[in-house]
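Morning!

This is the sequence you dropped in the shared folder:
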Amino acid sequence: MPERAIRFTVQNLAGQCAASWKCLSPPGKEDVYLACRELRGALKASLHRTGEWHIAYFEGFFAESVPEEYRTEQGRYMWSRPTPMAPGVTLAFRIVTPWSSVTSQAHEAASIVCVPAPAEGKAVEFLLVLVDGPIPVSDWPGKNTGTQVVGSYALPSGTTVWIIWREIDMPNLPPLRGIPKFFRGKNLDDLKHGVVGMLLFGTGPDGSRIIYDCVAQYKSEEAGPPCGRAGADG
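The structure's back. C-alpha cells below.
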C-alpha cells in the first residue's frame, strides 16, 4: 500500500506561493502527520491514533540547531485530541495564510494542490478534519459553510482525513514579543534586508492547533523587536 498524502499551498496569479504543506499517513498506519515542506523535515505535527498528539523537532535538527535556552522536554509540545465539533467529526488543525505571505517562487511538484491567493486583508484557512467513516463523494465537512476541498484519503479504520479550505478575514492577532528562532543559515541580517517567512503557533478556542504562515518584518531596536505582517508579531 503506498503512502497516502495531500500536498497543498496558496498561489497567486503571478505564480508566487506561500509555504507548502504535506499531510500524510504511512502505509497501513492510522497516524496522521503534517509538515511544512520549507522546513525540510525539521518540525512536524503528529496526530496519533492513541489521541496523544504533539508537535516535535526532528531529533537531529533539535540536537544540532536548537539553542539550549529554547529546548523543552524532548523538544515536544504535546496536547490531547480535541473534543469533536460534531458527532464523529474532529477539527484537528488549522493553517492560516494571509494575503501578504504569498511571496515565494512557485513550487515544482506536480502533485501539489494550489489554492487561489486571497484578496488583500484576507487569509486562506486550511482545515485538517478527521471524520469517523466515509462521506459521500458529493459532500465534505463544512460544505454548507462555504469550504472547498483540497483532498482526502481513508485510514485503515475507515476514518477519513480531509483537507478543506476557505477564505476568511485576517485574524486580529494580539501583539507578541519575543526572540525569533531562525531556521538553518538564516539570521537577523536576512530579516533586515529581505523577505523571511515565519510560522507562529497558537490554539483555537475549540482546542484545535493553529499555524499562522506569516512574513517577518524587521523593526529597529527603538521600535521594538521584529514582527510579522498582517498583525502577527513574533
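Headline: The chain has one domain: 4-169.

More detail when I'm at my desk.
O.
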